[in-house]
């Protein structure tokens, strides 16, 4: 009998995220990023385009009845056949006996896959390579239930011989894998936030939490990696900048390991295929779910009102 659909989706997503990571690294090696300005402070490179072509074409072929939404608007008529993979990661498939009951019998029509082929594009163009992640989030009905975060330049500080890349994945109710879970330092309050889009509201919300340290880094995926590895206590971005493809995979991985991601009013985002793309309510994520209410209680009233999710 074949493995449960949720596991096959995650196993395919892990394999295709690894291939997308190789595509990203190959483009950087050419030295020509093919940068297009989609809008103000909003870049797209050949790596974003080709990585998404690889991910969406592969997943569409493997799961033709599932909705897939990617960040980039693309023409899929010229996809390189070498970028289409039907591989399924064997280590993921080993978990077939531990799937939580509510995910055992999901239906393809209830699934939406959210793809950010390259999260941290600005940082990629600036050489801040560890900020880059490939994000594939899987939602069943409105809930983010599984996610893959592939970090293509993990280890790059260790020199040219170092093996690059790592895969983190999780399923809510099963667990999260591919990293060492470390609790954040008890006597500190480290908050990670945007490096590129700081404004009065973002700063006001952070200041209200009286952090001992602020880590300004790129990418929703990278910021959630800082949480799950205990390098930050909270990810706070009191701005409607993130989209559903930024938060679906990170939210699922975080929830799978005991953290929590909501808007700044404490509401969960919804991820069914008809939902609004923009996360109007901002982002508050904590690596320990029990810390979440404290951060919510510190949100200034004016910011909570402005960022009411619509
Ligand atoms: N309109 C608007 N207002 C405020 N902030 C915005 C806006 N659009 C994008 N952003 C922030 O820009 C960062 C990069 O966006 P993306 O994650 O969409 O980019 S990408 O995946 O790298 O292409 C990301 O912030 P970082 O957290 O610094 O990565 C987004 O939250
Ligand atoms: Mg982008
Ligand atoms: Mg993104
Ligand atoms: Mg992107």
From TrEMBL:
Q: EC top class, in one word?
A: hydrolase
What GO molecular function terms would the record report? 3'(2'),5'-bisphosphate nucleotidase activity; inositol-1,4-bisphosphate 1-phosphatase activity; metal ion binding
Query: What is the protein name stated in its UniProt record?
Result: 3'(2'),5'-bisphosphate nucleotidase 1
Stated family: Belongs to the inositol monophosphatase superfamily.
Required cofactor names: Mg(2+)
Q: Keywords, A to Z?
A: Hydrolase, Lithium, Magnesium, Metal-binding
- Catalytic activity of the protein: 1D-myo-inositol 1,3,4-trisphosphate + H2O = 1D-myo-inositol 3,4-bisphosphate + phosphate; 1D-myo-inositol 1,4-bisphosphate + H2O = 1D-myo-inositol 4-phosphate + phosphate; 3'-phosphoadenylyl sulfate + H2O = adenosine 5'-phosphosulfate + phosphate; adenosine 3',5'-bisphosphate + H2O = AMP + phosphate
Q: Does the keyword tRNA processing apply?
A: no
Matching PROSITE patterns: IMP_1, IMP_2
Q: Which gene encodes it?
A: 20210446
| Name of one Pfam family that matches | Inositol_P
Going by the entry's taxonomy, the superkingdom of the source organism is recorded as: Eukaryota
Cite the CDD domains for this sequence: IPPase
Q: Which positions are annotated as binding Mg(2+)?
A: 71, 116, 118-119, 246
In Gene Ontology terms, what is a biological process of this protein? Answer: phosphatidylinositol phosphate biosynthetic process
Originating species = Helobdella robusta (Californian leech)
EC number(s) stated in the UniProt entry for this protein: 3.1.3.57, 3.1.3.7
